[in-house]
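batch job 7 of whatever, protein = Regulatory protein RecX
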Amino acid sequence: MSKIITKIEAQKKKDNRVNIFINGEFAFGCSSELVYYHNLSKGKEINIEELKKVIVEDNFLTAKTKALKYIERALKSEFQVREFLQKKEYEDSVIDRVLEFLKAYKFIDDEYYAKAFVTQNIKIEGKGNIRYKLIKKGISEEMINNILNEISSMDEETVALKLAEKKLRALCKNEGNIVKIKSKLNTFLISKGYNFDTIKSVVNKLEIKEKENIEAFRSDGYNQVKENQWDELLSIAEKRYERLSKSEEDAIKIKKKLQDFLLRKGYNYSDIKTVLNKIIKGEDSYY
């Protein structure tokens, strides 16, 4: 029995797609572009081979469109795009064709992707973590090694030291045991993907040997309110002080109420004490 196109109608929800009916029954949907490309029209007789070509071409066009939308959100590796299309249940032959198109027009480029990823992430973690993440994204180990080898151990250690200093100050707020602090700091750096030699060097540079070191970190101004935070605290305190002064004349009571108010706001006691002295006593030096 011959196969004749009996109807071609536009899809209601997708302007660029049509439904093809053969011998009075729905056969398949495809891009309207293919209707013109294959000269499909009502009453035309179509054989199985022609039909297969139309369907394959339509799958390629829809897969390509989905892939382009996927990569426009952010850079993607070839593996990520392949995985995305596989989840959409496209055949491997269609996926391969889409990937060739994307690579030919530089929409995907694993080397460019890997270099951009390293540049961004080396500021916040070590080579170990970066290597693991890139492998999961399908980047070859050879390419990863070549890119990571361009980053010197000194540069990596500099970043690790900055991260460790920040972490150390946070640990010193709640922990006074030097052994526990050192252990937690090591665990933190390991979780960031730094190797043993880098961690050892960083910890040694921080000179965490005596309790005095902890006290030094606590008193080096780190816990002081930063300039912008200070301005905010001072502004809130001054406004509250003006309101309290209208209903209360006793300076001691005003100071106590203002202190309680700022404590409820979550400000540090030492900072509150400084701002109270500035507002009530008129002291200008608050650092």
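notes: The CA atoms of residues 107 and 239 lie 56 Å apart.
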